[in-house]
Specification:
The structure holds two protein chains of two kinds. By secondary structure, chain A is an all-beta fold. In chain A, 0% of the residues lie in helices and 53% in strands. In chain A, strands 2, 5, 6, 10, 11 and 12 form a six-stranded mixed β-sheet that branches. A four-stranded antiparallel β-sheet of chain A has the order 3-9-8-7, with no helix packed on it. In chain A, strand 8 and strand 9 form a beta hairpin. Chain A is globular. In chain A, 36% of the residues are buried. By secondary structure, chain B is an all-beta fold. Chain B is 0% helix and 50% strand. The N and C termini of chain B lie far apart (36 Å). Classes of the chains: A mainly beta, B mainly beta.
């Protein structure tokens, strides 16, 4: 079974601090994508960052970066210089191929609060 | 482009009623998906479609039906609504096999009482 686990239900940091959100996954596939999605109170799902499993280099998007450890099946998200607008639910997700449709499997989410 | 649109935004149903959640995308995407998000949880796949006329079950299909008569539209039908179907429903689309990003609609909050 393909599963994604986020072990931190909630996290809270002060503005401008750095925070790391954890994610582990389980799969027998060798080629796949990993994603972090942000869901603010508006409920809109926003793609934050993605990582291809065949790439060893960790993905970076401005203040967001990942630590991808393929052997350990770990995919953590680091947010640097956190801002109030980063307050949201964050979901780790994994894309597998099911009959060509490549569906997403989501973790349970981490509620991140940035305090002023 | 409007992207992925969903109607209605909110709905309250009584047990046993039926309704259709509408989803439309104007990006000419081949793949479309329906997810549900229960309180405090991640999204779970209900149904998906790889093109007009082709649909298949996801992880939690029981109590739902879909159709895909056009590329743009992917309605989700709830028959005999039950309290367990209280959730937020998201529609998403993706261009094709070589694209990775799914574009999500704003969601429909459904309450069954």
């Amino acid at each position: 079974a393909q599963t994604v686990t986020q072990s931190q239900p909630e996290m809270s940091v002060q503005e401008a601090e750095t925070v790391t959100l954890s994610c582990t996954y389980d799969t027998s596939e060798s080629n796949y994508y990993l994603f972090w999605y942000k869901q603010p109170p508006s409920r809109q799902m926003i793609l934050v960052i993605r990582q291809e499993a065949y790439k060893q280099q960790n993905a970076t998007e401005n203040r967001f970066s990942v630590n991808f450890q393929k052997a350990a099946k770990s995919f953590s998200l680091k947010i640097s210089d956190s801002q109030l607008g980063d307050t949201a639910m964050y979901f780790c997700a994994f894309m597998i191929a099911i009959q060509g449709a490549q569906k997403l499997v989501f973790g349970q989410g981490t509620r991140l609060t940035i305090n002023p | 482009n409007a992207g992925v649109t969903q109607t209605p935004k909110f709905r309250i149903l009584k047990i046993g009623q039926s309704m259709t959640l509408q989803c439309t995308q104007d990006m000419n995407h081949n793949y479309m998906y329906w997810y549900r998000q229960d309180p405090g949880m991640g999204l779970k796949l209900i149904y998906y479609s790889v093109g007009a006329g082709i649909t298949d079950k996801g992880e939690v299909p029981n109590g739902y039906n879909v159709s895909r008569s056009t590329t743009e539209d992917f309605p989700l039908r709830l028959e005999l609504a039950a309290p367990s179907q209280t959730s937020v429903y998201f529609c998403a689309s993706r261009q094709g096999a070589n694209s990775y990003e799914q574009y999500f609609g704003p969601g429909t909050r459904l309450t069954v009482t």
